[in-house]
Amino acid sequence: MNMRQDPMAATAELIVLLESLCKQPEEFLSYDGQCRDSSVQSLSRSLVCTVGEISTWPSASNVIPGQVTFTIDIRAMDDMGREAVIYEFSSLVYKICDRRSVLCNIERKHDAKAVHCDDGLSSLLKSAAYTALKRMTGEDPENVPVLMSGAGHDAMAMSHLTEVAMLFVRCRGGISHSPAEHVLDDDVWAAGMSVLAFLEKLL
């Protein structure tokens, strides 16, 4: 066991390390010209990291893999903070691979900058949601939350053409993009009423 150069073990260590880094970025990132205090604070609220694919070769139950490939998706509302996380994790990758005597290669396949919703449109949407809920319930809503979206959606693709804003419909248990996704009829109705109220305010 002490003589092994096992990329699967290195991968496992790196995935757990990535989870720690993304849960507590302030424990890993330093405050310097590359990463300001405000960036780290932003990261603690918005950073999400996902390992969604792992493939091994030759992929046999009793064989140490000759190669392991895995993907990482890192998202945050602050581009500078996200870059700091990528830089820090890349450094850790090479350190761990060197310690384990395995060869590591990092390939950056896709990069998309964060897109910020228009403040004016977002404010109108929030006001419209408030109006819709009041019409439905006859009472003043306690709070209309403003959320950060980890997913890009069409808004990201359209942001270079026009101002964008997004309206979310809550899903049971927070599960979306899944066969288990479920929304209440009342929430769909509230979203529709919010859009109508938004159009009224916009026009």
Could you outline the blueprint of secondary structure elements for this entry?
Layout: H1 7-23, H2 37-46, E1 48-50, E2 54-57, E3 67-70, E4 73-75, H3 79-99, H4 119-137, H5 153-158, H6 185-202
Antiparallel strand pairs: 1-4, 2-3
Helix pairs in contact: 1-3, 4-6
Catalytic activity: allantoate + H2O + 2 H(+) = (S)-2-ureidoglycine + NH4(+) + CO2
Family: Belongs to the peptidase M20A family.
EC number: 3.5.3.9
Beta strand %: 5-15%
User: In the residues, how many domains can be counted?
Assistant: 2
Q: Percent helix among the residues?
A: 40-55%
Content-based structural category: mainly alpha
Largest beta-sheet characterization: 2 strands, antiparallel
N-to-C terminal Cα separation, in Å? Answer: 71 Å
CATH architecture of the largest domain: 2-Layer Sandwich
Number of helices: 6
Global shape? elongated
- Radius of gyration over C-alpha positions, nearest whole angstrom: 22 Å
Return the average pLDDT rounded to an integer: 91
CATH class identity of the largest domain: Alpha Beta
Strand order, largest beta sheet = 1-4
Q: How do the SSEs run, as a string of H and E? A: HHEEEEHHHH
